[in-house]
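thought: fold this chain, then report.
action: predict
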Amino acid sequence: MYAKVRKIFSGKYPKLYGICENRKSQIKFFFAGSSAALVNLIFLLVFHGWFKWGLVLSTSLAFIVSFFLSFTLQKFWAFRNYHYGKIPVQFVLYIINALIGLSINGFLMHLLVNKWGIWYLLAQVGVSMIIGLYNYLIYSFVIFRKKI
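observation:
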């Protein structure tokens, strides 16, 4: 089915197909991250909204589920990195990178909202885009880099 859709898409929209083909890992990175964020929200709803578990427990469990999904999608799908022996090191680097991203998020949100007076939701969108670019570069060139 994928080959059939690909053939139709490339025939009807050759320029767009070429752009997508050249930016495949960036597009997959975006969808993998968006999927993990959606799964985080869904599990938060399930744990806190339906099961009525505490907010901290629900948030933590939803984050853990989405974190594992994100790692798996980024490693195997977006960056096509199939080195199973490197999973422990890559996972530790992924965790460290997540903590760095969390720190950057907190710092930039404090700066933009508390110091510069930018609306918090707009600030978070901008900060998320910055962290997304940072993550893409770290995943591409450090965590899931291809051997040279």
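thought: worth noting. The chain has a mean pLDDT of 93.
final: tokens above.
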